[in-house]
């Protein structure tokens, strides 16, 4: 029986077998694994990630999948705010691989960020790379995932950053907590399906199921034993750390009979509010408190997609079970009522409720003065493809530029001034204004291509408006910026109006995130201070759109001193 590879600070106290590990992360784990350490020991958390194939059975089908340490999902990374984390990743599979630590800012240390060909060349078969980074000024729920091809379909896991000792949560201390990681499952080999789709010039197939902690739940065939169950006691408060690790689906999540109180998004505390459901785009995280104040029973926790555009999605519902202690397993659980898949109003209303906590201890440092304003249109397109069966392939673009991945890591090219790898002329606005969200545009859908980046002076304050367009179709896009959090100062439906919409911006307590949902046929305005030098990827977190080129990167220049400049690369930095 393979042991879970927990970090050394946990291994020194107890080894835990996966089958015996309780569904909740009990508070004694905190006490033993964290509080019982000396300050010196607690400052460094070490992990070994062995990327290896494992045969896994779901939905009556067995197949080999790529995993970390043979686990699906992979191991949770635990740390405290202020810790140094050292993760040695060894690649034992046939694919090139890199891992991204989603939401960690990696100050001056893009070498540890992980996106392949952006900040590093991937690890080839048999190679290792040490991701060595500090957790500075962050606490909460984040996650990690493969950042090359579609390998994150199975290579992903949670990151739990606890507050520093003596700094309690700004909400009632929960009795226990657990991770709820939402994902997708394909019966076939994902990379094979993607390659076949690219040869055709068509979209890859939809997933066959959604999963909670790798399990689709009893509404799917052969899945009674593949159901995640949380046992709870009545009259307690529990913290759920919920992560949307799905590749292509925004997801509603709810618990039958129970309200949830949102207290954190993307590892930033929020003003608490109570809701029957939450909405997460791919890449986003949400922490909620749940009071077990209902009659003892078995209650389904469920997730189902949100899609309010004419785009096909996997619309099946994944379930897990919240089971009160003492209730027999034979009791049939109650299903929650989630919004309909195309319920735009509920989605918009939910996102409007999100506000930063904005207290003296956790201020919302929104840039009030803007140095540079950017306007980026998001669109789909069709380009000629002589090698594709269809003669064309689908494309996606920002400001009509479909990003071409380089063969040398951009951060390496920037740091060592390697010529002819990228250009720094990414436009601040689209080449030609048009009625972005009017009738669908189905002609002249070609895009320009190139490895074009936007150069930013250190400490510039940026306002970026992301505008969806009706090129082929409107669609919601979850956009993720590496290396930074940003403030979502405004969103709207239709075309952004630079004359009237800024007056409605929330500059007091806007939500602070690392991934923002751009509404279908609408826009989102974000602000951030470019105080982290390096090359930082920005892309749609729908894997199908990223594959088609819906991505770009910022080159943030160094500050005036070595302390405000990119660190040197590590000695084991992979080469292409």
From TrEMBL:
EC number from the UniProt entry: 1.10.3.2
GO MF entries: copper ion binding; hydroquinone:oxygen oxidoreductase activity; oxidoreductase activity
Keywords: Apoplast, Copper, Glycoprotein, Lignin degradation, Metal-binding, Oxidoreductase, Repeat, Secreted, Signal
Keyword set includes Repeat: yes
Superkingdom of origin: Eukaryota
Compartment(s): Secreted, Extracellular space, Apoplast
CC cofactor note: Binds 4 Cu cations per monomer.
Domain Plastocyanin-like stretches: 51-164, 177-326, 425-559
Cofactors demanded by this protein: Cu cation
Catalytic activity: 4 hydroquinone + O2 = 4 benzosemiquinone + 2 H2O
UniProt GO cellular component terms: apoplast
Family: Belongs to the multicopper oxidase family.
Protein name, as recorded: Laccase
UniProt source species: Brassica napus (Rape)
Recorded name of the encoding gene: BnaCnng02950D
């Amino acid at each position: 029986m393979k042991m879970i590879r927990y970090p050394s600070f946990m291994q020194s106290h107890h080894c835990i077998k996966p089958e015996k590990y309780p569904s909740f992360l009990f508070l004694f784990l905190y006490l033993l694994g964290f509080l019982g350490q000396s300050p010196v020991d607690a400052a460094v958390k070490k992990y070994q990630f062995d990327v290896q194939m494992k045969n896994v059975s779901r939905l009556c089908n067995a197949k080999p999948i790529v995993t970390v340490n043979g686990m699906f999902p992979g191991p949770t990374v635990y740390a405290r705010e202020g810790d140094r984390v050292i993760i040695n990743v060894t690649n034992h599979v046939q694919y090139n691989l890199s891992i991204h630590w989603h939401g960690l800012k990696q100050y001056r240390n893009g070498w540890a960020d992980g996106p392949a060909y952006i900040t590093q060349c991937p690890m080839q078969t048999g190679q290792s790379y040490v991701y060595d980074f500090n957790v500075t000024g962050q606490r909460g729920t984040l996650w990690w995932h493969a950042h090359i091809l579609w390998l994150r379909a199975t290579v992903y896991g949670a990151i739990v950053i606890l507050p520093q000792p003596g700094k309690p949560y700004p909400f009632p201390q929960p009795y226990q907590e657990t991770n709820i990681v939402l994902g997708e499952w394909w019966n076939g080999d994902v990379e094979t399906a993607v390659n076949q789709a690219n040869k055709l010039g068509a979209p890859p197939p939809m997933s066959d199921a959604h999963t909670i902690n790798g399990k689709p739940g009893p509404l799917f065939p052969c899945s009674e034993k593949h159901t995640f169950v949380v046992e709870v006691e009545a009259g307690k408060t529990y913290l759920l750390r919920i992560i949307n690790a799905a590749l292509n689906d925004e997801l509603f999540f709810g618990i039958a009979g129970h309200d949830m109180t949102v207290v954190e998004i993307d590892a930033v505390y929020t003003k608490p509010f109570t809701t029957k459901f939450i909405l997460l785009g791919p890449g986003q995280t949400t922490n909620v408190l749940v009071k077990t104040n209902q009659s003892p029973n078995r209650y389904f926790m469920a997730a189902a997609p949100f899609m309010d555009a004419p785009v096909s999605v996997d619309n099946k519902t994944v379930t897990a079970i919240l089971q009160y202690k003492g209730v027999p397993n034979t009791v049939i659980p109650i299903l929650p009522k989630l919004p309909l898949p195309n319920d735009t109003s509920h989605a918009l209303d939910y996102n409007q409720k999100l506000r930063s906590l904005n207290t003296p201890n956790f201020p919302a440092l929104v840039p009030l003065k803007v140095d540079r304003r950017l306007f980026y249109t998001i669109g789909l397109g069709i380009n000629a493809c002589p090698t594709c069966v269809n003669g064309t392939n689908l494309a996606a673009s920002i400001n009509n530029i479909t990003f071409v991945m380089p063969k040398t890591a951009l951060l390496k090219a920037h740091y060592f001034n390697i010529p002819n790898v990228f250009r720094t002329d990414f436009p601040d606005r689209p080449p030609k204004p048009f009625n972005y969200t009017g009738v669908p545009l189905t002609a002249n859908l070609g895009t320009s291509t190139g490895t074009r980046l936007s150069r930013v002076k250190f400490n510039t304050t940026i306002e970026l408006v992301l505008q969806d367009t009706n090129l082929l179709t409107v669609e919601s896009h979850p956009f993720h910026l590496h290396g930074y959090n940003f403030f979502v100062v405004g969103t709207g439906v239709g075309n952004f109006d630079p004359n009237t919409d800024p007056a409605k911006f929330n500059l007091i307590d806007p939500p602070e995130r690392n991934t923002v949902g751009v509404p279908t046929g609408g826009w989102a305005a974000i602000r951030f201070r470019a105080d982290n030098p390096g090359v930082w990827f920005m892309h749609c977190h729908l894997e199908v759109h990223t594959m088609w080129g819906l991505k770009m990167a910022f080159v943030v220049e160094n500050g005036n001193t070595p302390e405000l400049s990119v660190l040197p690369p590590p000695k084991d930095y992979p080469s292409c």
